[in-house]
Amino acid sequence: MLDVRKLRVLCSVVNSGSVSAAAANLGYTPSAVSQQVAALEKEAGTALLEKAGRGVRPTAAGHLLAEHAAEIMSRLAAAESALADLRAGRTGRLRVHYFATAGAELVPPAVAEFRARRPGVQLELRLQEPAYSADSALAGQADVQLIVLPQGVSPQSIPGAELVHLLDDPYRLVLPRGHRLAAKPDIELAELADDPWIDNEWPPGTCRKIMLDAFAAAGFTPEFVVESDDYPTAQGFVAAGLGVTMVPALGLGSVHPGVEVRRVRLPEPLRCIYAAVPANAGDNPLVKDMVAALVMAAQGR
């Protein structure tokens, strides 16, 4: 196999026309250059240079090899530059998995901020439901994954992942216009024990458990009269007067004109939103910048 360093020496000799000039350009002694060329000729099995006056010129084999060597040097320089860009975070790919309500409110401003910092990075953004585990991050399928944990659950509860807290997302009561409690700015949850409820968390998971735990803390079990699997649809059922519901603040989006939104207390349910990162990826500059952008987006709410 031909040695890249010797090829570089050959290119310098061919381009400069003499061993001494090549030695000066490379910072070698003329003797070292001659030795490198002789060793390359041995590897190639043929003469690569011949005398021409006071200098040298390439033989046909030398000319051919020098042309290929120049292309190899160019490709190596490009590879080294690309690798340097990748290490510095100027290029590369970043995979971000998110759940729907975070995708609507947190991810777009975070992506805009990230692109301003890292315009050469390819982003792979994927909706990942449900939001209750860090499986994609732990399996190496995502570099950053947004997840939900109940209030009070330790971020250290997911081995193999580093969790960065973004925000606590409080639930809000959604009432039909004209509801008997709509005039109050905040409402105790127990005051709605006898109301029909719209279930908006299906299939069951962490967010539904957060709601059910709040009902239990308020001392009642709700009567669910409608089963809905998304927040906008639940708002529609509330607006039609079929019941009341609770929706995380991030999930309210465009508030239906036929509903009233009020704070809830005693208790105020919260879902805690985190960015989950594989434990071995925390020092990646792209991951750091995306997490910082998500934190900034959360603080801007």
Mean pLDDT over the full residue set:
86
Number of strands: 12
Write down the overall geometry: rod-shaped
* CATH topology title of the largest domain: D-Maltodextrin-Binding Protein, domain 2
- Structural class by helix and strand composition: alpha/beta
Count of individual helical segments: 10
Order of helices and strands: HHHEEHEHHEHEEEEHEHEEEH
The largest sheet, given as strand count, sense and whether it forms a barrel, is:
8 strands, mixed
First-to-last CA distance: 61 Å
Helix proportion of residues, in percent? 40-55%
- What's the CATH C level of the largest domain? Alpha Beta
Under the CATH scheme, the architecture of the largest domain is 3-Layer(aba) Sandwich
What features would you describe in this structure?
This protein folds into two domains: 4-88, Orthogonal Bundle (Arc Repressor Mutant, subunit A); 94-301, 3-Layer(aba) Sandwich (D-Maltodextrin-Binding Protein, domain 2), CATH 3.40.190.290. The protein has ten helices and twelve strands. It is α/β, with parallel strands linked by helices. 41% of the residues lie in helices and 26% in strands. The strands form three sheets. Strands 3, 4, 5, 6, 7, 10, 11 and 12 form an eight-stranded mixed beta sheet that branches. Strands 1-2 form a two-stranded antiparallel sheet.
